[in-house]
C-alpha cells in the first residue's frame, strides 16, 4: 500500500486485533473534502467485532483502543488451542475412515 506524503500514517494495521475487533479495512478522508466534513477527516477503520461475524463497524482512529500485550497473547493462545482441538477431531475422523492408518 502506498500512502501519499501529505497524509498522516495510519495508527493501526490491517488484521490488527483491537478492543473493538479485527481491522478488515481502512480508508482516508482528506480534510477539505465533503466526506471529511460529514464523517471527520483522517483514517476510518472497518472492524469485525468477532471472528466469523457478519457484522462490520466503522470507527474513527481516535475511537479504537489497542489490545494490551497480555490481552493479545490470551486471544492468540485461545485461537491456537481452538484450532489444535479441531485438528485432533479431524485426525480422529480420518483414523476412523482409514481404519486406524494415518500419516501423523
Q: Determine Rg (CA atoms, Å).
A: 20 Å
Task: Tell me the span between the first and last alpha carbons.
Answer: 40 Å
| Helical fraction | 25-40%
Placed side by side, the strands forming the largest sheet appear as: 1-2-3-4
Number of separate helices: 2
- Overall strand count: 4
The unreliable regions are: none
Secondary structure class reads alpha+beta
Largest sheet: 4 strands, antiparallel
Give the SSE order as H and E letters: EEHEEH
What is the overall pLDDT average? 91
Shape: elongated
Strand residue content: 15-25%
Describe the model:
- The mean pLDDT is 91.
- The chain has a 4-stranded antiparallel sheet with strand order 1-2-3-4.
- The chain is built from 2 helices and 4 strands.
- The longest helix has 29 residues.
- The chain is of the alpha+beta class.
Amino acid at each position: 500500500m502506498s500512502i501519499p506524503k501529505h497524509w498522516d500514517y495510519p495508527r493501526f494495521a490491517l488484521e490488527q486485533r483491537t478492543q473493538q475487533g479485527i481491522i478488515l479495512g481502512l480508508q482516508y478522508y482528506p480534510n477539505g473534502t465533503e466526506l471529511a466534513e460529514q464523517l471527520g477527516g483522517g483514517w476510518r477503520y472497518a472492524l469485525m467485532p468477532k471472528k466469523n461475524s457478519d457484522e462490520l463497524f466503522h470507527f474513527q482512529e481516535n475511537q479504537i483502543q489497542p489490545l494490551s500485550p497480555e490481552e493479545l497473547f490470551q486471544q492468540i493462545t485461545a485461537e491456537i488451542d481452538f484450532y489444535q482441538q479441531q485438528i485432533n477431531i479431524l485426525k480422529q475422523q480420518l483414523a476412523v475412515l482409514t481404519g486406524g492408518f494415518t500419516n501423523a
